[in-house]
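Quick one, tokens below. Sequence please?
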């Protein structure tokens, strides 16, 4: 059954503003954890709004990734996946994911899961929430590793062109 939309617009705007504040504060204080913490209301509302099985799993996956990422940041865990796997990138769900320190992988996974949600949901509010999560994920990657951010931007541009060509 479809979720009520009476309060969906103000709630979507509110969680988007909170996420935007997290991004700004994250840049000001050089704290990706702040951006992640203030992204949690957006993810919680996304979990509430989605209805399909695959989208529900993707939304809960967002929460799991954020929890693991916060733990990695809190305990300052460093582990270079690229050298461990002896490769610079890995394909995940059809997307080439650049590998580096493990802390960068979490926001990349957030972006991928949010793209999956964007593609597989019909509701305008769930799509809007997905866009907020994608923007936040890109910002967090930039905070952690600007070089990986440039690679992600290139992949996103290619995806955008492909999406536009398929219209």
């Amino acid at each position: 059954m479809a979720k009520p939309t009476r309060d969906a617009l103000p709630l979507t705007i509110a969680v988007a503003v909170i996420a935007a504040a997290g991004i700004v504060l994250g840049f000001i204080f050089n704290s990706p954890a702040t951006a992640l913490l203030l992204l949690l209301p957006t993810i919680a509302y996304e979990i509430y709004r989605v209805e399909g099985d695959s989208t529900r799993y993707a939304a809960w996956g967002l929460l799991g990734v954020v929890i693991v990422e916060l733990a990695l940041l809190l305990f300052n865990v460093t582990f270079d996946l690229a050298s461990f796997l002896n490769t610079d990138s890995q394909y995940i769900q059809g997307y080439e994911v650049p590998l580096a320190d493990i802390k960068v992988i979490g926001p990349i996974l957030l972006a991928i899961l949010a793209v999956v949600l964007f593609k597989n949901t019909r509701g305008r509010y769930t799509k809007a929430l997905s866009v907020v999560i994608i923007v936040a994920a890109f910002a967090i990657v930039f905070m952690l590793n600007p070089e990986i951010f440039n690679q992600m931007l290139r992949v996103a541009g290619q995806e955008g062109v492909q999406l536009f060509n398929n219209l």
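The chain has one domain: 8-165. Residues 8-165 form one domain.
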